[in-house]
Amino acid sequence: MVYYSYDQPFQKRGFIYPTEAVLVFLDDASHIRLHQKYNEPWNRGFYTQLLKRLTAEKAKAVVFDIVFSDAMDPVVDQEFAQAMIENGNVVLAEDFSTDDYNGGGLSGSGKFAPVLQLFKESAADVGSDALTPDNFVTVRRYQPGPPRVNTTNSTDLITAEEYTTSSEAWAAAVLYNPELSHNLKLRNSEFWLNYYGPELSLPAVSLYKALTNNDPNVPPGYFSNKVVFVGERLQTKLQASRKDEYSTPFSYLPPPNSKFTCGVAIHATAFLNLIRGDYLKRLDLKTEQYILIATGILFGAGLMFLRPLTATVVALGLLYPLWLLNYYIFRDYHYWFPWVLPLVFQIPIAAATSVVFNSLQLYVQKKQVEQSLRLYLPARLVKKFSSDPSLLKPGAKKQHLTILFSDIAGFTSITEGMDPDELAKLMNAYFQSAVDECIHFTEGTIVKYIGDAIFAFWNAPDPQDDHPFRAAEAALRFRDQDKHEFNGKKVLTRIGLHTGEANVGNFGSTTRVDYTAFGENINLSSRMEGLNKYLGTRVLMTGDTYEGIGSRLITRYLGLFRLKGFEKAVHVYELVDRPENGERTSELRQRFAQALELFRKKDFAGAEAAFRRILESNPQDGPCKFFLEHIEHLHSEELPPEWKGEITLKEK
Description:
- The protein is of the alpha/beta class.
- 41% of the residues lie in helices and 20% in strands.
- It contains 22 helices and 25 strands.
- Helix 6 packs parallel to helix 9, helix 10 packs across helix 13 (353-373) and helix 21 (604-617) packs antiparallel against helix 22 (622-634).
- The longest helix has 26 residues, at 308-333.
- The chain starts with a helix and ends with a strand.
């Protein structure tokens, strides 16, 4: 019943005729015209002849859905191998067979027939020919990477871990578009096939026609810039090798459409799905459950307030619009949803939803809490919070934290005049990267977004012994994310770090939680971020954070600073880099330390000269520029005897 939700929209949509691939069939007509002996493997000289034409016509790639595991005529084999080398873009099939199929994956006794070594060395790649049909021998899902295999422990079988060959379609798609090779998520996942029509809706010719240059249906240049898939067509009765045939969503159409589709056509379909990006997707199980629960609640809560006759009319009136919506999403957005369930089951039993409404309401509330928690907590903590109501109660406690404040340098000027929708899109991308690749990556807690700024901390709600290091690592990852641009200008993030005690807790209710922290140390972290603007730096930290990091990261001591609103001066460090890159800034840090020591000893002339010498080789060094400017003001000031080099800032 669920698979009917997948199959039925294809029949409504009709056929699509992609042009990027061509099928060459080893069919009955070719068997007769080429005088191929019955009950024997095909003469590989035909493949050599075909390859020469495809090479001459500059086909993008050639995929043989044929297993060449045994040697035959040495001369013919060598000629075929040479033709593959000359073509340079040939994919050969590696056969993986199994006793049984189970849930879209392979199970039972898995065995494979490796490609002849001569041919494997001559081909551009080797691809698995494994297909995983489900019920009624229908192939609906496709695995671009190695097939999912469950094998027995017999020593003559290959295990899932050992079998690492990707599919024919993936190998061909990477040859067609090398950028796909970087998409490991797609390679290692499973997608739902988007069939374009019955087998013959794809461009296809018989092998014997492809070997001639005078057939009007296959004129010269016919294969130019195409990916050619070569394999058996299911009607072939004379082939000695194993044949494969499967049903598809179009198998239910009346004649003359074929009831079955050959394996090579399915691999070609998967290839087209990959390069066109129009393969079908299905929502994850939890999301589908949410949708089904939501529709059940909607129909149950809504229809129970209507009179029986009115409720029946409304329920029947909902059937076609809901089906139409599903079809629209399928056709235009390439998602399929098990729509049979709400249309066949949920709506007819909508009255019963009022009985279970209260129990479902509790379930939905929990999911709403989880959704709120995901806004500021790493995924691993969401479940912990949502399953323990006590953690959501209002209240606060003192906690030792490492606090991070970030801000985009010059945000107002670089976003001036931007379209609001475009700005929102860019900011969402920036925040997504900051959260996923920086803060949540190091298991920090997002507290809130303040305009273009982010407030986060570590060591709460879960304790983290190395929280200063985690926060510093997140800051370095922020710097590594300098890939965003607003109005053509690179976005630079400035960060302040401080470690100290703060009041941490929940403010709100159990359904709307504001988990935050407050206190003097929160403000100090914010001041550290603002200090970057004066020093021309990207990441600054206090001495308290530095003590928690030690020598695990490269830092530069910048001196004592008395910040606005704080009576006590704080030691300030610049976070420079990771240890493996320390050599690049070693000389700069040593010379700066010497200049800073002269400054601290009130040798302003010596310090000024030292800072200027640093700028000669590092003209963009912000701290040197800052101290040179500050030294000019100190010449006219009378410093107290206990002065230790601290600098007082009167602005934030």
